[in-house]
Give the backbone structure.
Amino acid sequence: MTAIGAIAIRPYRLSDVRAVYEAAMESVQRVEPFMPWCYPGLTESEQRAWIEAQVTAFQTRTAFEFAIVGYAERYLGGCGLNQFDVLNRRANWGYWVRTSAARKGVATAAVRLLVSWAWENTDLARLEVVVATTNLASVRTAERAGVQHEGMLRGRLLLRGVMYDAEMLSFVRMDRSR
């Protein structure tokens, strides 16, 4: 487990299913527009299948998804690395925080922990995320975590049948020889 203050990230466990499902249902209205996996009809069995896949992916090093937890292991959200481009030592990163934990610095701490974990545990040289320009809270979180803005990509994201312009944001390892 990697921590900053009361916020920690750790790999998902099968025992997380109920907590993740409850957090998703609490957060549907806020998260759904930008994260297609979170929708009112989401079932606990779908959540279980996703977590099972993430446990396997972590073990095989094909994705690194983490639970964001607070005091007493309360589930606060998720963050992770996926969509690896091994040849170019690049991965996508992302995060979400349940509604009751929003605007409390949880996401910013989780992003910092995720980046630190990536630099210490992988040979990745670049972590990038593409965020809809209308997702201002997510862009601000990334800015507070120290991200670099690389530009706006027109018509880059298709979310729920709507094309969005997006910001390309990244972290780049200073020592790229690793």
About this structure: The chain has a mean pLDDT of 91. The CA atoms of residues 32 and 38 lie 5 Å apart. DSSP finds four helices and eight strands in the chain.
